[in-house]
Amino acid sequence: MAGEPQPDCLFCKIVSGEIPATIVRETDTTVAFRDINPQAPTHVLVIPRVHHPDAASLAAAEPQILADVLSEAGHVAADEKVDETGYRVVFNTGAGAGQTVFHAHAHVLGGRGLQWPPG
Fold first, then answer.
1. What are 19-33's pLDDT values in tens digits?
2. What average pLDDT does the chain have?
3. Contact in structure between 46 and 88 (CB atoms under 8 Å)
4. Could you tell me which of 61, 47, 60 has the C-alpha nearest to residue 15?
5. Of 12, 81, 29, nearest to 21 (Cα)?
6. Among 18, 94, 109, 111, which residue carries the largest CB count within 10 Å?
7. Is 105 a catalytic site residue?
């Protein structure tokens, strides 16, 4: 069921502490941790504590929590000191867009030049 932890979800297991992660920020509604395969010097994932398969379904079901994820992305950028030099927030939605973990999440990328359009 949407919003409920899923037993086979990697990110739900990180939220519960079942799987370790390098956590950089936590709130009542979000967890932010370093990506294990970073694509930039700063590459942090910000996830909601509730399970929704992608950003679109999170927005439809719990828009305030999606806003919390985006707000936390800004805090991560400031903590990582990339807020003034520039950073990117990416939500991959669906396998065709590169989503590999089907729990809504934002990538915060910075610390190097980021080209447009992305590959």
1. 999 999 999 999 999
2. 96
3. no
4. 47
5. 12
6. 109
7. yes
The alpha carbon of 20 is separated from its chain's Cα centroid by a whole number of angstroms, namely 16
> Minimal CA–CA distance to 106: which of 42, 60, 13, 61?
42
The token pair that represents 6 in the structure block: 């899923």
DSSP letter string, 41-87: SEEEEEEESSB-SSHHHHHHH-HHHHHHHHHHHHHHHHHTT-TTT-E
Q: Largest alpha-carbon pair distance within the chain?
A: 40
One-letter amino acid for residue 41 of the chain: P
Instruction: Indicate the SS3 state at residue 3.
Output: strand
Give the pLDDT band of residue 108 (cuts 50, 70, 90): very high
**Selected catalytic residue, list 51, 103, 105, 107:** 105
The predicted model gives 98-108 an average pLDDT of 97
- In this model, does residue 71 exceed pLDDT 80? yes
